[in-house]
Amino acid sequence: MRTAILVSAFAGLVAASPVAQDINFDEIDAAALPPQGPPVTAVSQPPTYNAASASYSAAVQAATDPATISKLRKRTPQGVNGNCAVQPDGYGPKTHNPDTDSAFLANSTYDNIANGAATPQGYTQNFVDLQGATESPTYMGLYTLQTYDTVKCQQLCDATAYCSGINIYLERDPSVNPATGCDNPASITNFKCTLFGAPVTSDSATNVGQWRDNFHVVITGSNGYSKNAPPPSYTNFTGPTEFGGAINAPSSYMGVKYYPGVYDPSQCAASCQTTTAYDHRHPTNGAYHACNFFNSYMLSINNVPQGTYCSMYTQAWDRSYSTNFGQYRGSDYYSVSQSYGYTLTTQDPGVIS
After folding, report:
1. Of the candidates 196, 171, 175, 201, which has an alpha carbon nearest to the alpha carbon of residue 186?
2. pLDDT at 316 > cutoff 60
3. Alpha-carbon gap, residue 95 to 105, rounded angstroms
4. DSSP summary character for residue 4
5. Burial 58-76 (b: 16+ CB within 10 A, else e)
6. What is the Cα Rg of the chain in Å?
7. How far apart are CA 27 and CA 276, in angstroms?
8. Which of 227, 208, 216, 75 is nearest to 130 (CA)?
9. How buried is 174 (Cβ within 10 angstroms: 0-12 exposed, 13-18 middle, 19+ buried)?
10. All residues at 6 or more sequence positions from 297 whose CB lies less than 8 Å from its CB, including other chains
């Protein structure tokens, strides 16, 4: 059973709660994880994230607070055309003498490509020349490039709403779809660019390849970059105001919503306003709990971004109260980043006039 979620919508819970706003693990556990990266056979997977749809879904969910969350999206194979079918040739330099996974990983040409790549303007380099690609619930899409072009990858991210991290790498792929009679074909080299709805970290570069029959897909020259930009502003709210950590206020705490995947505070804005509307329809002695402020941040587990965490309050709080930087759950560390505050522009007194 989910607990402490948008508590203003439930009887017997007080909005002006003096309880510390620890991370709500029940809310996180209840959320289904989206895919964390592209399917192994994908050549292209353009982003499909729709912020307007996500905001609407957040509002609907906040209005009813259902006990279930939409099911995990299924990964469907892409780029496969049948057994032993020829695959699109890669644009990267091949490793064919010998054509093995270990020779690919030891090829200094790939190291030189990654180490010589430019950091795109407006981005920070988070890691360079790793032998693993980023995996995260904030995965948005994949492109195969004709060159190891960090600027092109950045442009694809900038053209995608809510994209804030990119990972570019070289991947050893099969020249034909491995199957009986062609289970370990000659390799090709692809330049791949993946987009994420949160900053990327070296700790998230955990995709080190897969076996496709007797062919070993491996990855090298993996570079990660994150956008240096705050989230957008939203109608009816003043902000974003950057915080150091998450808000830990002495009072007025209403509850939390958590949305796995892309970092998108619009979901918090929608939840905040829908919660107020619900409480306005269910007053107690002429008063109701009005969401006048929310704190959104990216929740990470062991430095791997997971989703958007929204804490809601009946009054606004400033940066001096942003003192919750994370906490342990067993050996796992849940950390706070990209923490911002949004204040309702016209404050709602929470009184039926």
Report:
1. 175
2. yes
3. 9
4. S
5. bbebbbebeeeeeeeeeee
6. 23
7. 20
8. 208
9. buried
10. 243, 246, 308, 309, 336, 337, 338, 339, 340
- 72, two tokens: 């995990």
Which long-range contacts link 331-336 to residues 24+ away (Cβ below 8 Å)? 332/301, 332/302, 333/301, 333/302, 333/303, 334/23, 334/25, 334/28, 334/299, 334/300, 334/301, 335/299, 335/300, 335/301, 335/303, 336/245, 336/246, 336/297, 336/298, 336/299, 336/300, 336/309
In the chain, the N- to C-terminal Cα span, in Å, equals 36
Q: Per-residue confidence at 76, pLDDT binned at 50, 70, 90?
A: very low
Supply the pTM of this predicted model: 0.77
Question: Which has the minimum average pLDDT: 7-11, 249-253, 278-282?
Answer: 7-11
- In 3D space, the residue among 264, 213, 277, 197 whose CA is nearest the CA of residue 37 turns out to be 197
For residues 39 and 144, is the Cβ–Cβ distance under 8 A? no
In DSSP notation, 93-131 reads PP--TT-SHHHHHH-HHHHHHHHTPPPPTTEEEEEEEES
Q: Minimal CA–CA distance to 206: which of 19, 18, 36, 8?
A: 36
Measured distance CA(327)–CA(96) in Å, rounded: 48
Identify the CA nearest to 128 among candidates 116, 140, 142: 116
Mark residue 12 as left, alpha or beta (left: phi above 0; alpha: psi -120 to 50; beta: remaining). left
Stretch 121-133: mean pLDDT, rounded?
97
List, in sequence order, the alpha helices (H) in the chain: 25-29, 51-64, 101-106, 108-115, 150-158, 266-281
